[in-house]
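Q: Can I borrow your eye for a moment on a structure tokenisation matter? Would you mind producing a protein record, from residues through to fold? Write it directly below this note and I will take it from there.
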Amino acid sequence: MKSAIITGTSKGIGLATALAFARSGYNVFATMRNPDASTAFKETILSESLPITILKMDVNSDKSVDDCIAAIFEHTKEIDVLINNAGIERHGSIEEMDLTDFREVMETNYFGVLRCTKAIIPQMRRRKNGCIINISSVAGQIANTPLGIYAPTKYALEAVSEALAQELKPYNIRVAIVQPGIIDTDMSQGVRPMATSIYPQVNRFGGLFQASLKNPVPCSLVADKILEIAEGSSWKLRHPVGPDAIPFLGWRGSMTDEQWVDWNAAEDEEWFNAVQNTFGMNVRQ
């Protein structure tokens, strides 16, 4: 039986991925900061007799990661797949957000991935086999307000993943980046127009999220893609997921940097009209 470690499994994409892997016959080590709060997850595991072990791990802590990985290796000698899913989000204008928010998001979304990855690589390298899947976002290639805190963490994650893929390919270890679009998660639901901000862009992009979530895309779609990558043999690095992911990336790619800046700095009505003409979505609040 193959084994997989999945971080951030208390809800959303991580939870859906843990279930998808276990139902496909993987021995799953599902990690999260607060296992005591995952009553429904535990009930599902019991009712379906799924091979899932829930473990406490805070990806922000060296000790927590080391202790958890050590506990996992008491259960199994080999980890075939590592899925770095744990992540957090903050949004707002760069001027109005506190530096603490920037540090917290980078600590989880970037350094947290590095902690887990560095703990797992040695045994994969010795075996010359393994797969590391890092959950990024279309925000890993698209930067705009109010995600000026979140997007840099995903840019950093994509950069280190790209370098890691080069280092590990000679050892037959595949590295993949998954780039979800707007998926029906608590994180996406939280990107809403803000009550007050001196920057209008902060509020109007929240409207785009809310309009998109009127036709919600389930987390299971991303989970299925992650499982497909793990089960396959492709060395493809980036995997956009969701009906809006490729259109969003193409939208950004169709503009020069200067055009992108100008368009996002435009007056509200011009911006709203462009979104409606491009995506057929009325995101006016």
Q: What stands out?
A: The first helix runs from residue 12 to 23. The longest strand covers residues 173-180. The mean pLDDT is 93. Residues 3-186+218-245 form a domain with the Rossmann fold fold (CATH 3.40.50.720).
